[in-house]
Hints:
The chain is 66% helix and 1% strand. By secondary structure, the chain is mainly alpha-helical. The model is unreliable at 163-174 (pLDDT under 50).
Amino acid sequence: MLVSIRPVLSVLGYLYVGLAAAMLVPAFVDVVSRNADWQAFIISSLITGLVGMLLIVAMGGALRDGLDTRQTFILTTLCWVSLPAFGALPFLWLGIAYVDAAFEAVSGFTTTGSTVLTGLDSLPPGLLVWRSLMQWMGGVGIVVMAIVLLPFLRIGGMQLFQTESSDQSEKIVSRSIELIRLISLTYLFLTSLCIVLYWFSGMTMFDAFNHGLTTIATGGYSTHDNSFGYFTNPVTGWIAVVFMIVGALPFVLIIQALRGQPLLLWRDPQVRAFLWLVGLISLALTIYLGTSGNADSFGSAILQSAFNVISVVTGTGYAMGDYTSWGAPVIGLAFLLKFVGGCTGSTTGGIKVFRFLVFFGTVIAHMRRMVRPNRVISVSYGNTHLTPELTFSVLAFLVVYIGTVGILTLILSLFHLDLVTAVSAAATSVGNVGPGLGTMIGPSGNFAALPDPVKWILCSAMLLGRLELFTVLILLDPDFWSK
């Protein structure tokens, strides 16, 4: 018996209606700004909403019995593929080619932050707001997927988050719907706080609103071509550093911290590892900048180091200056950091810190067994003993992840891209990081000059990375589609 997709289409209908409603926000911004481009968002909203309503009506009561596991796999994939397709519609009104519109929308919803647009300072305000909204909506969708969905689907070690935190999650709420509500409220609160602090630091309300949306989502879309290099107040940069870190932390633990248990954050092994990692690398880079003469002062060196390190590790993609001009060691460091990511259950991309902890724990345990074959050695994560199934899923994910980057690099090289551009484009797309390396797609460039086929390939890579690879790959198994 084939998997029924009627309930899936019904849920998609509701999501399209919600997306249509979100399009009215940039339309309102353009109306207030007396910009005629508001029509693009109204028409796009009508098209998207109409498709959504037709699906809801056509599917009738298909949702009465809920969704099973396989239908949830299909829904997750179709959601991330189809929402950017509709999100790209407003760009077409402005004469942007569909490949570029699709690239910008996919990059937005996946919170990658790579862009093909130039002259951001002079773009219509509604379009800038729409870019930021796509990232903000994508960010909360990522958190919900990571915390509520993926652990139960046992994808590439994501069940570790359930194993480590499921008891804590159940103490917060008893049902997934209530957990989603708490996640959304926490996400909204943190976004609002970030916007207010940006405004107080000297940003205009328009810039504060847009950057508040994209900072907590670790997305990286900016309203200026110079990204955060446009803002001269160091306080603004430090606010971004703090909220990029917040966006990289597990949202379940953030909820508990806001409810009076802040020490739970520090007790989590991946949180401690993440903070130590970005802290030590930022300190080392500060010393490097100070001794190499690439910074004007110690204060400037530490801000630029912390900002760019955290931006790359979390996959936010903001840039404060062109860090690729700081020398070959920094370029190599930036490339490696693109693979890291933040904590599981956060808005970040990449491999995630917890998978590295499981990997290194497995390697150390294996080495100890080699020395003492008769000794029983288990792999632990904090106070949790990991099962062989879980450690295997993490190792499988790492192999598939690195293999995917390698295959994409080979494919991109067929389009005559140099090695640095090809490998960094592959890594940054699968990791949902943002800028690549090199003169073309580095922090001071963008992806506009890439051939159209390459942009489509990178769109697929961004979606594949955001869906944690296995969510899509399992759909290719013929057994998935039959009972």
